[in-house]
Structure formats: structure tokens, C-alpha cells
Amino acid sequence: MSNKLDFKGKYYSTVKSIQDKEMDSRSLRLKAAHERAKTRYEEEMVMKEKLQQQLDEREKEEEEKKCDEKIEKLENKFSGKGSVTATKRILKEYKHFQTSTDIENFEIKFKGDNFYQWNVVLDILKFELTADLKKDFEWAKDQSGRDPTLQFEVIFSSSFPFDPPFIRVVQPIFKFHTGHVTIGGSLCMESLTPSGWSSARSIE
């Protein structure tokens, strides 16, 4: 009787040992499969990121090429007009605005074909605003039924960048002298005066 019990115990012990080994082996296979899948996924993500970077770089190069072609046409059109120094600097500023990825939600148009005069339109609600200012613009949106914009007129002189540009707020119209904005809309700031301006300063 004792021998039968010993045999039975050894049998079940052997079966359990085999089952444990099979489970360990299965667990290792699953773990290895998971690691392979994870590695494959990471490699695919790296490839996608590289492809996206290449597409972004190609798109940026195409945009810069178009911008350079436009600037070249403008330079040829205004050849002999204004100041060479001012023209080159204004077009450099314009190119920066058109190609920079850090500046968004705005549009620059020339007054006619004169790139010495800019009309700048900002989608104001897409910028960070104080609570009061945001409330005012949202009220304006409700009144007009249109998304509010902040419109500037920027006028460069032939002595730019050694003299500051003249900047005026066209829309919205200010009824009172508010902060740095006069009743007529011009910006009254030390940095836009001959004494406070620096030729190294960017329009941005």
C-alpha cells in the first residue's frame, strides 16, 4: 500500500513538474513575442517620425523657395525705388514672417504693390489674452457675427532700419487713449521712437 502511494505521489509530482516547465516555457515565449512586437512598433514609429521630418523639411524648402521667388520679383519691381538697405531689410523681415514656424494666426498684405506699407491682420482670439481683453473681443464677435481680428498698418521709411516703422491699429477703433494706443490708433511706445529704436530690433 505504501509503495502504491509513493508511486502515485511521484507520478503527480512529475506531472506537475512537467506542467510547470511548460507554463514557464509558454510564459517565456509570450514575453519574447511581446518584446519583438514592442521592438517592431518602436522601429515603425521611428521610421514614421523620420518620414514626417523629411516631408516637413521638403514642405518648408518649397515654401522658402516660393517666398524667395516672390521676394525676387518684388526686388526687381521696386529696383531703383526707395532705399536699397531698407528694401533688403524689409523683405528680410517679410520672409521671416512667412517662413517662421513660431509665428502663426496672422496675415500680411502689401498696400497695393508697395511693400513699404503692410496691412497685418491677427486672429486675435487664438492668442493669449487677459480676461478683460478676451471678454471685449468676444463681445465684438457677438455684435458683428464675425471672428474679431486685430488689424495693423505698418509703414516703413526709406531710412529703415535706422529709423523705426510707424505702426497704427486700424481695427478695432479705440474711442479713447488706451495704454500705448492713441485715439488715432498709432502706437505710442519708447521702442518706436528714434531715441528708443535699435536697427538690430526685429518687427516681430
TrEMBL record:
Keyword field: Coiled coil
Coiled-coil positions: 34-77
Q: For the UBC core domain, which residue ranges apply?
A: 85-204
Top-level taxon in the UniProt lineage: Eukaryota
The record's listing under CDD domains reads: UBCc_UBE2Q
| Residue intervals passing through the bilayer | none
Query: What is the protein name stated in its UniProt record?
Result: UBC core domain-containing protein
